[in-house]
Structure formats: C-alpha cells, structure tokens
Amino acid sequence: MTLPLTTIVLLPLLGFLVNGLLGPRLGTRLVTVVGCGLPVLAFLVAVGAVMQLEAGDGAALVETLFTWAPFGERSLDVALYLDRLSAVMVLVVTGVGSLIHIYSVGYMKGDEGYARYFAYLNLFLFFMLLLVLGRSLLVLFVGWEGVGLASYLLIGFWFDDPAKAAAGKKAFITNRVGDAGFLLGMFVLYAALGTLEMDAVNAAAADGLLPAATATLVGVLLFVGATGKSAQIPLHVWLPDAMAGPTPVSALIHAATMVTAGVYLVARLAGVYQLSPEASLVLAVVGVATAFFAATVALVQTDIKKVLAYSTVSQLGFMVLALGVGAHGVAVFHLVTHAFFKACLFLGAGSVIHALGGEQDLRRMGGLARRIPITFVTFAVATAAIAGLPPLAGFFSKDEILWFALAGEQGGLLLFLVGAVTAFLTSLYMFRLLWLAFLTPSRMAPEVAAHVHESPRSMTGVLVVLALLSALGGFIAVPHYLEGLLPLPAVAPGRAAWHLPLALFAVALALGGLAAARHLFGGEARPAAALAARLATLHRVLTNKYYVDELYEGFIHRPLVWVADRVLLRVVDRLLMDGLLHGVASLARGSARALVRVQNGQLQRYGWLVLVGLGAGLLWTWPHV
Amino acid sequence: MADTGMLLALAALLFTIGLVGILVRRNLLVMLMFLELMLNGVLLSLAIFTAHAGSAAGAVLIFLAFVVAAAEVAIAVPLVVLLARRRRSLDPGAYMDLRG
Question: How many domains does chain B have?
C-alpha cells in the first residue's frame, strides 16, 4: 500500500535532515539538488495524490500513521487527511514553495549559510505540509508551531545583525500570544465534542451537537490564534519586521504560505463558524479594519519590502473579511491568487534588491524598467493583478470578496464601503511602488547604477512562471471546486442583479488607483511631496504606522519590564528569595562564630568541659535517685 | 561486707586521681596512664558490685573489659609514638591544628 500523503510530508523533512546534518560537507551542487529536488518531488507526489482524490470523486484520502495518546476509550491519532480544501493548499504550498526554492539558488548564491538556508526552508515546508494535511487540530497545531519556528529561524537567518535577530524574536513572541488563544479554543472544542479531528468537528457541528455559544467561543478563540499567524489587528506588528529575513523567505513564508495558515484554519473549521454569526462578524470587522489600516500605511512606506509587507497584511485582511461574511471558498480563492502575485512581487523585489546590491529604499531607485526588463514586466503584471485589473487573477478573487461583502447575507454596506476604499488604496500604493522603482527617472547613486544587472535565469524564470500564474490564476474556479465542502453564502434578496455593476465599479477603483498613482508619482512636478507637506500630521502618523509599536511599547512592554524589574527582580528575587537564603546562611555563620570558641584545640579544655557536663548530668539525675 | 564502702571510696579515689591527672598534666604518655587509672577505678567498682551480688556474668564482664583495655593501650601507645615522631613533642598543645 502506498502512502502518498506521508511521502509528501516526509520528503522535505528528509531534505532538512540531509542538508542540516551534512550540509557543509556536501558541497553547493549537492545541497542545491537535495534542497530543491525534494520539494519538486513532493509537488509531483502531491499532484498524483490530488489526481487520486479526483478519481475517487472528492472522497477524502486518510492515512492514519499512529496513535499518539490513547486514554480510556478515546485516543488522539496522528493522521493525514486530504480533501479538496487541503488539496488546494498542498498544491499551492509545494508548487509555489518549489518555485521559491529554485529562485533561492540564485538569490542565496555564495552566502555562507547556503546549506543551512535550504535546511531551514525544507524544514518550513515539512511543517507547513503537516499543518495543511493534519486531520486533527492537534497535528495542525504541531505544524502551526513548527512553521513559527522555521519562520523565526529564517527571519533571524543573518543573526549577527541584532536588529534581524530581534525581528525574529518579535515574530515568535507575538505568535505565542495568538497561540494561547488557539490552545484555549482547542481545549473548549475537545471538552464540547471529545474529538479534535476536523472532519468530525464539522460533521458534529452540522448535526447540531455544538451549542451556538460554544461555537462562538471556539470560533473567537481560534481566531485569536489566526490573528497571530495571519497578522491581523492587533497582532499584525511582527509581519513588517519579519522582512529582515532573506527576500525569498518573505515571499514563501510571509506572503504565500505561512501567513495564510490562519485563513486555512478558519476555512477548515467552516462548520463551526457557520454556526456562529457573532464569531463571523468579529472576523469580518477585524479583517476589513486590518485591510484598510495596512493599506493606508503601505501608501507612505519607503522600503520596498515594507510596502509589500503591509500589502500582505492588507490582503490577508481581505481574506479574513471573506471568511467573516461566510464566503470561505472565496477566501481560499484569494489565498491562492495572492500566493501567486505576492510571491511574484516579493521575488521581483528580491530581483531589484539583487540588482542594486542590497538597496531597498524606494527613494534611491527609479528608472529600472529598461535596465532589468524581465523583472519589470513580471512585476508590472503582478502589480496589475493585485490592483485588480481584469482579467488578471486578483480581479476575480477580490471582486468576489467585495461582492459577498455587499450582497452576502452576512455582508453589510459598511463592510463593503471600507473594502472598496481599501481596494482603491491597494491599486494606489502598488502603482506608486511600480512608478517609484521602475518608471520615474533614476535616483540611484552612480556607483550603484553602474552595477545594475538582470538576475540569473534561475530567478527570472521563476518570475515569469509566477507572472503567468498571476495573470491566469483567476480562471481556476477555486470557489466552485470547493463548493461541496465550503458552500457559498446565500445572496441577500434583491441584490442579485448588482453583480455586474459591482464588477465594473471594482475595475473603476483599480483604474482610479492607477491614475492617481500616475498623477501623484509619475510626473516631474511631484505633487505627492506637496500633498505630504499639506497633510503633514497624517503623513507622520502613517509613516510611523499609527504608532502601534510605540503603543505596545508603552502599554505592554514597559509595564512588563517595570513589573519584572521592580517587583519580580528587586522585591521577589532579591529581597525575598535571596534574603531568605542569605538569612539562613548568616544565622549559621553567626552561631558558628559563637561556638567556635569552644573548640580551641586544647585537649585539657575538652576534658574540663567533659567534667562540667558530667557534673551537670549527675546533679540533674540526683533528685531521681 | 563491712568494707564495701571503703572499697568503693578507693575506686572513687582512683577515678578522681586519674581525672585530675589528665586535667593537669601536659604529657601525652602520662595522660594515657591516668586514663588507665580512671578505667581501673571504674573496673574496681564493677568488681565490688559483682562480688556483692555474687554474679558470674559480672566476673566475665570484667575480664572482657580488661581485654578491651589492653587492646586500647596497644593502639593508643603507638599513636602517641607516631605523634611524637612527627612533632618531636609529647605536649598536647603541639597538636592544636583542629582549633576552630
């Protein structure tokens, strides 16, 4: 009996072990073959598994590996599970993952930690596949924590820079906050249903075994976990800092796959969320707020990767909005298209950074369109895709999200309006990026400009493939494919006819963003600078990301440090614990100092003492004689 | 036996002489001899009580105690000799290294 799912999961683990243990001894060529070959192999096996799934007409494939913890009549099994939802995820993870592995060959060439890099990247893939394929929430949680670990290792990949090491820690710690919610949600779910296997949970929810209040509690708690992993307000702060890692890592982990884990989690447990309109409303509000907030910040960032990072946060907000209005399939659709175009954008940015010898500041770019044409064209395609220009991928998925935000039963006008404004802002900041980096006259330093070069074919090839996917990915009808698992919400009566006008409106928004960006940033007159000067306060607030980091610093970090220092360190540790121990020690020392006079080494003195003791003993016993 | 009291007084006297000797003399060998005197005082009282009670066990106990005393001397004297070789002195004041 063949075990395709197990094979998919174990292949990257094998790569991690080989490169991690033997890496430096293998030599670059062999490291590359192992590091890229095994993910590609995993992708091929995944395609085979999905074909097997389709041959069975969508009946889920299950592989039970072993029983982890039997207790009483229940047990916790480690099992892998492939249905259409995890099939979509597995193909995206292994497919886009393999492309980014191949891209990394050129990007990381000559780096000291080449083998270590591929080992970590394979480790990430292993955990991500475990997350996606796990049947039980527990297995998913192991993957969930594992990708967090891999993310930490890769953000701090160049750990000799303290800022990068700190960014890694920030990502890890912020995620731990969310994980607390995840764990609690898992506990509540287990207490209520006695199982953590997600197909069983969904079935139980459909059978009405889960009370609505419990469903709300579970839904909100698990979403707390999702806000950590998927960088939603208020736990979004780690993602922009995570850009300290190598750019392909940003593309793979912090754009295409890991950060979508929260979206996948909610979609996976759609049954629970369908029972709880309240939890769904929380999702919708948080999602749309995050989308809007991040888009406004992205407008003014000057670091090319920071713009893309906030764009990712914003797009994740869109996905969560889709989940919140009950359109789970559409959220997964946007997840897929976003994986294509955001990976393309990040890798394109990586190509730009590569060409400029490490420069990331948009203010010192410009005029790159002619110098690195392949990067430019692919980047432009992906930009148009994320902005939502038809017929590129982003148009279809974003249009559907806006449609269900407006017309879905759980949608609302306010959700739709904020979403629409955000769609306009998305187009604006992405075309701003395009103009500042590629189309405006060069602002590069001459010595940088002299060395600009197109990236090697292994990198541009990947860019072309991803650009094609960004262009055509919208024609993969993911929501339709998933409809059996994740039914789309009913459209509110009387709004069915609004779909075409809405699509036209969405196109108008994208074009409006394009025109605004061209007007503000394209010409010589630089009206953008004038606008920034006129709205100086707003500009400052946006540049400082709404001071969220400072807020956390002031309200969480400082009080924590204060308590740790003043209360725990000075009072509890030094005064109480140390005081107790020092007190005991000085008591012993003091009594010893008194008693030491007795032991003066003179035999006769000891004899006298014995005599005194003898006499005292006799006197004491006298009355009893 | 009328002179039991006298004999007991003799035992007490022997013990006291030994005790005083140990406390006042500064020569290890002499102190050892006074120690034997104290022991003999005690054993004398044991002999008196044994005779008084007519106990055979007491007589056996005295012989055992003498054997122990002999063994004790056989160890104590070589110890004193070894100490004396080390420091060339029999004064216990020379061995105050264990002072606290």
Answer: 1
Structure-block tokens of residue B15? 């013990």
Chain B hits for A596, CB-CB cut-off 8 Å, are: 100
For residue B96, is it within any domain?
no
Element (H, E) at B14: helix B4-24
Residue B66 burial (CB count, 10 A)? 13
| Residue B97, domain member (yes or no) | no
Return the DSSP state at A69.
E
Q: Which of A596, A600, A603 to mutate to test the interface with B (most CBs of B within 10 A)?
A: A603
CB spacing of B95 vs A598 below 8 angstroms: no
What domain range is B67 assigned to? 4-91
How does pLDDT run across A261-311, given as a tens digit for each residue? 999 999 999 999 999 999 999 999 999 999 999 999 999 999 999 999 999
- Name the amino acid, one letter, at A422: T
Tell me the nearest-neighbour CA distance from A21 into chain B, angstroms. Answer: 59
Domain containing residue B26: CATH number = 1.10.287.3510
Residues of B in contact with A603 (CB under 8 A): 31, 92, 95
Residue B100 lies in a domain: no
- Which chain A residue lies closest to B25 (C-alpha atoms)? A604
Question: Tens digit of pLDDT for each residue in B7-47?
Answer: 999 999 999 999 999 988 888 899 999 999 999 999 999 99
**CA distance readout (Å), B100 to A106, A602, A604, A606, B97:** 75, 11, 16, 13, 9
- The reply to whether B99 falls in a domain is no
- How far is the C-alpha of A616 from the C-alpha of A428, rounded, in Å? 101
Nearest to A78 by CA among A22, A130, A152: A130
Cβ separation of B95 and A601 shorter than 8 Å? Answer: yes
Residues of A in contact with B24 (CB under 8 A): 604
ipTM computed for the complex: 0.79
Residue B100 has pLDDT above 80, yes or no: no
Strand ranges inside A319-368, DSSP E: none
3-state secondary structure of A77: strand
The token duo for A427 is 């187009």
Confidence of residue A377 (pLDDT cuts 50, 70, 90): very high
Q: How many CA atoms, within 13 angstroms, populate the side-chain half-sphere of residue A386?
A: 37
Q: Does B95 touch chain A (CB under 8 A)?
A: yes
**Residues of chain A contacting residue B22, judged by C-beta atoms under 8 Å apart:** 604, 607
Q: Report yes or no: B19 at the A interface, CB cutoff 8 Å.
A: yes
How far is it, in rounded angstroms, from Cα A198 to Cα A200? 5
Give yes or no for a contact between A433 and A304, defined as CB atoms under 8 angstroms apart.
yes
The confidence score (pLDDT) of residue B18 equals 93
Hey, is the C-beta of B49 within 8 angstroms of any chain A C-beta?
A: no
CA distance A161 to chain B (A): 57
Q: Is A68 helix (H, G, I), strand (E, B) or coil?
A: strand
**Contact assessment for residue A292 and residue A249, using Cβ atoms and an 8 Å cutoff:** no
Q: Is B80 on the interface with A (CB under 8 A)?
A: no
Choose, out of B22, B29, B87, the residue to mutate when testing the contact with A (most A CBs < 10 Å).
Answer: B22
